[in-house]
Amino acid sequence: MGRAFEFRKGRKMKRWSAMAKTFTRIGKDIVMAVKEGGPNPDANSRLRAVIQNAKAANMPKENVERAIKNASNKDTANYKEILFEGYAPHGIAILIETASDNNNRTVANIRSYFNKCNGTMGTQGSVEFMFDHTCNFRIAKDGIDAEELELELIDFGAEEVFEDEDGILIYAPFGSFGALQKELENRGLEILSSGFERIPQITKELTEAQIADVEKLIEKIEEDDDVMNVYHTMKEE
């Protein structure tokens, strides 16, 4: 198996935020998708993908419909996606994806977390190059052979395809999202969820005490309402 498989396996053991936080993140994704491409999912591939993710997270249909309606309101604040970079203790690179309607607030909060936990906030581009920006799709198994599917999807950007207990996962470079989404839909394959991840090119093994230091910072960052995802180069078992 490749790096995407190992990355996914490691993150599967990760502590996820409460369901309410997940719904808040999906709500922001809906706002950004609607502002970008309109409220009709048939004509907005990004919104279509977010709705699939909402369904996978068991977000009530009425919540999704209300979020789409609210996002169509001109008075609804838009969210800007901002990437933050830095180092946790023990030389662990940290990459933080945020969606904020107040950049000054988000910058101040992220900086304070690094300062309080003995980390260092970096400049743009200081650690981003250490991660591969990828897209992924999870589809229903339905008797599909993952190896055969991988060969068939190579021309559409697929780099790694593997099966787990929840379906078949397809990984590709960030820029291949649209082509893969279109091909999967054309084939009539059920997309259960999709998204983007940043996979560290190299990871660093730490002692238990060092891991606790890094996790203290990560937990602080993840509690922030503006934070969507946190990636790091610490090795996860």
UniProtKB/TrEMBL annotation:
Indicate yes or no for the key word Kinase. no
| InterPro entries tied to this protein | Integrase-like_N (IPR017856), TACO1_YebC-like_2nd/3rd_dom (IPR048300), TACO1_YebC_N (IPR049083), Transcrip_reg_TACO1-like (IPR002876), Transcrip_reg_TACO1-like_dom3 (IPR026564), YebC-like (IPR029072)
In this chain the TACO1/YebC-like second and third domain maps to 79-234
* Superkingdom of origin: Bacteria
Q: Which residues form the TACO1/YebC-like N-terminal domain?
A: 4-73
Q: Which Gene3D superfamilies match?
A: 1.10.10.200, 3.30.70.980
Protein's cellular compartments: Cytoplasm
One GO molecular function term of this record is:
DNA binding
Give UniProt keywords alphabetically: Cytoplasm, DNA-binding, Transcription, Transcription regulation
Where the protein is mainly located, per its record? cytoplasm
One Pfam short name: TACO1_YebC_N
Q: One Gene Ontology cellular component annotation?
A: cytosol
- Biological process GO terms, please? regulation of DNA-templated transcription
Note whether Cytoplasm occurs among the keywords. yes
Family per similarity comment: Belongs to the TACO1 family.
Q: What is this protein called?
A: Probable transcriptional regulatory protein SAMN05443663_102172
Q: Which organism is it from?
A: Flavobacterium defluvii
